[in-house]
Each structure stands twice: as C-alpha cells, then as structure tokens.
Amino acid sequence: MSTPTVYDVAERSGVSIATVSRVYRNPDSVRAQTRDRVLAAARALGYVPSGSARGLASRTTGVLGLCFPDYTDPDAEADGVDAEDDDSGVMLYFDQILRGMERAARRHGYALLIAASPESGPRSLVEQVAGRVDGFAVLARTVPTEDLEVISRRLPVVMLAGPREIDHLDHIEVANADGERELTRHLIEDHGLRRLAFIGGELDSPDALARFAGFRAACRDAGLPVPDEPAVQGVMMTRAEGARAAETLLDRAGERPQAMLFANDQMAVGALHALERRGVRVPEDIAVAGFDGIPLSRIVRPALTTVRQPMLRLGEEAVGLLVRRLQDRTRDPVSLMLPVSVARRASCGCGPDGPRASAAPAPRVRGEAE
After folding, report:
1. Is residue 13 pLDDT above 60, yes or no?
2. How far apart are CA 268 and CA 261, in angstroms?
3. What is the rounded CA–CA span in Å between residue 338 and residue 327?
4. Cα-flanking dihedrals φ and ψ of residue 111, to 5°?
C-alpha cells in the first residue's frame, strides 16, 4: 500500500491542496468546519505531513527558535533539591517563557527549537538556531548586536527583555523599573521601613539594572538616601548567591537593614534559607522581597513577597510577533512593554495571603495600534 499524500487528503476532504497545506501551516486561517474535515480525512488515510518536503516547497522550516544562555541554578542539586520531586518548585523564569512560546507556536502550526548553552558562548548559539528556523526570539545581551544585525536581514528576530538596542527589530520587555518602584514604595509607606538594601544581579543584566533604577526612584520619592550602587552586587542570580549576599549584610558593621530586596526570586529564596540558619526571623527582624513571581516564590516559607511578571505571556507575545513578521516583513517594528504586579505575602509582613496584588502601569506599545 502506497503512503498517502497531500493529494489524497485534498481529494478525500473535497478541498484544494493549498487548503490542506494551510491547515497544517496556519490552522487559524482555515474555517473550523473545513479544518476538521481535512484533519479527519488525514487521520482516516494515515497521512502525516512531511516537514522536509514542505520546507523545500515553501523555503521555510515550520520552526521558530528561542536563543538564551542556560540559567539553570547550579546550586539546586547542592541544596539537596531533587528536580524530579520538585519540578514545580524549581521552575525558573525561562521555563515559564518556554511554556508560553510552545503553547503559542503549537497554536500557529510551528515547532519550537531551543538553543541554550552555558559553555559554548553566544556565537555558537546563533549558529545552532539561525540556519534552521524561520525566525527566532533572543534574550537581550545574549547575542552580540553586530551578529543580530546580520541575521535580522534574512530572518525575523524578536528581542526579549532589556532596553531596545536595535530600532528595526520587534522588542518585548516588562515594566521592571515600575514594578520595583511599586514594591519598594509598599515597604516604605505600608510597612514604615527605612533601612532598605537592594541586592543586584549580574552587571550585564538589563533587567537587574532596571530594577535597581526603580528601587532608587522609590527611595528618592520617599526622601531616603539614594544609593549609587546595590548594597551587594551579585555575580549570578542563583540561590547560593542570594544566601551569600544575606550573610554579607548580616556580618557587615553597623545597623542591619530592615528589608532586603533581591534582583530575582531565586536569590531571595536563598536569602530566606540563610537568614533561617542564622536565627533571623522573617519578616519580624528583616523583610525579604524578590522579583519574577516564579512558582517557588509561593511555596517557600514564609511565602515570598515579589513582583510578578507575565512570563507565559512574554513567550506567547514573542511568537505572535514572529508570526506577524513572517506574514508581513514590511510592517513597522513593535516595542511592547508588559505590565507587572506586586504580590504582597508573608515575607514582608502582609500575612500568608496578603492584600490584593497591586498593579504597575498598563502595557505600552510603540509602533503598533492596539
């Protein structure tokens, strides 16, 4: 028996070959009734679309890429965390973005290729992805600007996070500065805290820098001293780094801070463990806050006050921009800022549930009408 072809599916379902192709390449462009009829015919015939043949015909791959460095926390195993037993608790920032991209890519009929490496360096990441995808999303500062300029001449590229460094590329970020400013304002105005210590992330992290800028703005608004640099500068944004920062602040001469604000949740969770080991009560002695809103922030004790960013939506929006760019390469570039919200929990003294989360400013879109 011969292998069924797209012609067989088209004949059996009573549609054109082009319609069958659209069902698999862009299902949302086909009416639901027609799409169901085509898919039923394909199932009955045992037809499986050939990705390689489709790519040769259309000069596309049907694949979108995501390029980022491997930010898996190397301290998780050292802390005795079994990933298989704690897969929801250790889910990191990029795991959530991946889920959003995978969900949206599948909805648009694309597969997702992920390139992440802690060792090979940014150039090899580009080489792994650029020649095998129709377009890709890349974390800011992961790939040299000159490489992106070259690649973007032939492939759609969406930049994730950080400032917009290349004007002609689509770009998505979250309201990092606004979120940290609102979180700091909450600690100052609602809890009456005055001695605040911000613990920074990597020096080349645009998100961490924006969060420190928001912290400084809130201190300025409240008439408090505005630091020129974080109280402790992190090297990596891991739990071990957060624990080391907390130990450093505890051992430093002078009055202890009333609150420690960390550049991300992973660091803040490490600090919670370190403070517990030192017999420091949270929030009675020192309040602790993070940023990101990863699932782990909800299940630690005390539950972590944090700024929640829409990580799933960040991934979904990245795919949406890539798909629209593939459909129209001449459209104006888009810069999208997604809103964040402050989750007030026990680690700042708001109680297990806390007051309702407060939202930072609404998203702003430049270059595209809403």
Report:
1. yes
2. 8
3. 23
4. -95, 165
| Omega before residue 283 within 30° of 0, cis | yes
9 closest CA partner among 34, 51, 40: 40
Who's near 25: CB < 8 A, 6+ residues apart?
54, 58, 62, 109
Instruction: Give Cβ neighbours of residue 356 (< 8 Å, ≥ 6 apart).
Output: none
Residue 111's nearest CA partner among 88, 133, 93 is 133
Alpha-carbon gap, residue 287 to 2, rounded angstroms: 69
Token digits for 225? 């001293």
Distance between the two ends of the chain, CA-based, in angstroms? 52
What distance in Å separates the CA atoms of residue 215 and residue 188, rounded to the nearest whole number?
11
289: number of CA atoms within 13 Å, CB side? 35
164-190: per-residue pLDDT in tens? Answer: 778 889 999 999 999 999 999 999 999
Q: Read off the pLDDT of residues 27-64 as tens digits, 9 standing for 90 and up.
A: 777 889 999 999 999 888 877 665 545 554 556 778 89
Q: Are 242 and 230 in contact (CB under 8 A)?
A: no
* pTM given for the model: 0.75
Q: Is 62 helix (H, G, I), strand (E, B) or coil?
A: coil
**Cβ–Cβ under 8 Å, residues 65 and 102:** no
For 124, phi then psi, to 5°, come to: -70, -30
Cβ neighbors of 235 (< 8 A, separation 6 or more) are 202, 241
Q: What is the DSSP letter of 189?
A: I
Distance (Å, rounded) from C-alpha 103 to C-alpha 101?
5
**CATH number of the domain located at residue range(s) 176-308 in this protein:** 3.40.50.2300
